[in-house]
What does this fold into?
Amino acid sequence: MAFPPTFYRWRPHPWHGLEVGDDQPRVVNAYIEMTPYDNVKYEVDKTTGYLRVDRPQLTSSMPPTLYGFVPQTYCAARVNALSPTSQKGDDDPLDICVITERPINRGEVILRARVVGGLQMIDNGEADDKIIAVLDNDPFWKGANDIEDISPALLERIRHYFETYKLLYGQPSKARIEKIYGREHAFAVIGAAMEDYTEQFG
It folds into this structure.
């Protein structure tokens, strides 16, 4: 029996085996690791591709959106060059926050995300951008195409989460948000992360 060309005989690695998307950087595939219901930090194991428990959430904050990464991206020199105050990229896939109107309460799902902007985050000196997107086929968000189309209150909630989610009691935060940017800069960050990936992994 011949398998169709789109069939994966074995489960693909979510970072290396999935595609960025055929309409990138406007619309990208997002692999979701965490949902707003998770009080444990889940992260894809880079060797096996399975979801592993990284740590319990360190504060009372919960993720305000779906949270994961864009496949076949990598944050290294080119991403760092777009982040003037960082020392290096964080050597991870590019993170993405996906806003939806209907709740999605499970991780390890793939979805199409329409990019509207991002956060320029510095974590312990490393460029750790968070792309902000909406679920592409969500009618509630069909008019959202740039960061101005997202509620400032929601953006502040996202900012607060990432500035505090690694916070240890009695210690200053090592993460800071330098700025919130629109989709044109987000497109540049995605392109840089794709080029960094190609250089690192071929």
